Description:
The complex is a heterodimer of chains A (392) and B (285). By secondary structure, chain A is an alpha/beta fold. In chain A, 43% of the residues lie in helices and 13% in strands. In chain A, strands 4-3-7-8-9 form a five-stranded parallel beta sheet, covered by helices on one side. Chain A has a two-stranded antiparallel sheet with strand order 1-2. A two-stranded antiparallel sheet of chain A has the order 5-6. In chain A, helix 15 links the parallel strand 8 and strand 9. In chain A, helix 1 packs across helix 4, helix 4 crosses helix 8 and helix 9 packs across helix 11. The radius of gyration of chain A is 28 Å and the shape is flat. Chain A starts with a helix and ends with a helix. Chain B has 285 residues and is an alpha/beta fold. Chain B has 13 helices and nine strands. In chain B, strand 6 and strand 7 form a beta hairpin. Chain B is elongated and about 80 Å long. Chain B starts with 16 loop residues before the first helix and ends with a helix. The relative contact order of chain B is 0.13. Classes of the chains: A alpha/beta (392), B alpha/beta (285). At the A-B interface, helix 2, helix 3 and helix 10 of A face helix 1, helix 4, helix 8 and strand 9 of B.
Amino acid sequence: MFTTFFFALRDAKLPVTLREYLTLLEALKAGIARFNIDEFYYLARATLVKDERNLDKFDRVFGTIFKGIESTGAEGETAEIPEEWLRKLAELYLSDEEMKKIQAMGDWDKLMETLQQRLNEQKDRHQGGNKWIGTAGTSPFGAYGYNPEGIRIGQDKGRHGRAVKVWDKREFKNLDDSVELGTRNIKVALRRLRRFVREGAAEELDLDGTIRSTAHKGFLDIHMRPERHNTVKLLLFFDVGGSMDSYIQLCEELFSAARSEFKHMEYFYFHNCLYERVWQDNRRRNAEVIPTFDVLHKYPHDYKVIFIGDASMSPYEIVYPGGSVEHWNEESGEAWMRRTLDIYNRAVWLNPVAEKYWQHTPSIKMMQELMGGRMYPLTLEGLDRAMRELMH
Amino acid sequence: MTQPTKFTGTDNYVATEDLMLAVNAALTLKRPLLIKGEPGTGKTVLAAEVARALGRDLIEWHVKSTTKAQQGLYEYDAVSRLRDSQLGDERVHDIKNYIRRGKLWEAFTAEKPAILLIDEIDKADIEFPNDLLQELDRMEFFVYETGETVKAQDRPLVIITSNNEKELPDAFLRRCFFHYIKFPDRDTMNQIVDVHYPNIQKDLVREALSIFYDIRDVPGLKKKPSTSELLDWLKLLMHEDLPVNLLKERDPKKLIPPLHGALLKNEQDVHLFERLAFMSRRDGR
């Protein structure tokens, strides 16, 4: 019945399963949504989407699949579009010449028509409108924060609450998990990295154990057990300075989240690539350096290692001795990376650079290879994948 | 009087169209409904209102970090049995006397289909939802101590709320309907206020709402005021009988709204707001 829709959702990486699809069909059969696209949209959303981060993706797919169903009567309601939008639109889509021409004609309808045409063209050229007005594709939203569907000509402001409006608005955009990161969310992601083990002094009364043992022996036999602790131990290596400056906020958030989440956590700074020395205080980094060897010797191999850096540098800085931009390094960064990874087999690299640009920077590719493919983007979703990698 | 079988909101709860549909879908197919949303958007209240609207009993199970799934089914009170055995109590011979029923048991065996609220499921341990999978899916469970199977005669409507502190397992999610209550827009908010304070002056609401949404738009607030806070604030405003003009005044010197304590719950937010007020005053000159 709706198999196209179902597969379109799966193609868009929405985790929908057969079971949910069957539930949707069952609900339709039970007559929950009756011949009304709005109700169908709500029902499909309640059945198929289980995470608000996916609502935006769902809206996009729904918009493309069921486009046209709701289009009747859309034309001719143009008058209610806020003038401001129109002005901005006109600036964007019409050349100066055309603007003048239209102004000369003074024809409102003509203006609308041209705009509509322009928008349609624009939509066709960029598939799905993903990279619309945005600069260099960084944002699916245009300069004015609307998406093409949202400012579709003929979208009447007064028809508030109609579903087509709802899914066209895509108001859940900022919940998409490849975009937003905040400390709280980072903490949630970091919680994957928990392994509770009872270790140490037995200080807690083990009630179940006591009862079992008492019943078994026939006299009161008290059992004690140690408290539960998170035994995961973590080493963080942060790249600082240079190209990392633009990601400082992101790194700070990750750092503060990690700090509150783990008891056994040590952090070190490096610049661009890991060499024979690291430091813990950026203000005194020339005076108080720690030899990397000391770090490797001090923390046993059961520590998990996370590198945070953009890995964007000259390939020489990784491959050649003396390649560092700051000092003369006797051994190459590559050697130091390998040495570290040999000791800590649970290691990942988090890269704040968006994943799609990685292949364009040779040093990122090299680092990716050094890490054995364990490089993840510094987004919630990437963090999640990284934590899974560290845990298994 | 026959009870309604569909939920259409109540006289003091404004349900949006999509929320109603989600509730009704869960009611019809008798599957659990998972509700998420910003704090203060009425997640927990929903269950109570659905119960009221449908004339059903509400069974609430508030989950804490120490809550175990087993506690929702039943608990075997071994300690009292041990004590009773030493005191020679007659009850000791029947193990049933020491089985304490949990909320799920209550809901399953209720005479007419009940509404079970599992509040803040994300507070519990990560394994918690997994442990309830079968129980919520089949609506039955087995009591090992007595060897009986508790099975729901009429499947209750299970409403689960989550604040996203932990992710829920996929297998659990697949069995639920899901609804995300988004923050109400101005029109819905007007209705909500209307439902709570029917006699409030319209212009007071208008002014208060615009201040409220202004505050929510202030970037960098640690905690944005929510619906319940707006309602409290309006109540205070009505109680104090402040003249509407006071809210209307856009005098930059009084940019901090009256009785702001009801809206801003964090001293850093109040400071931030004061600083912004100060800056706008400076710019105003």
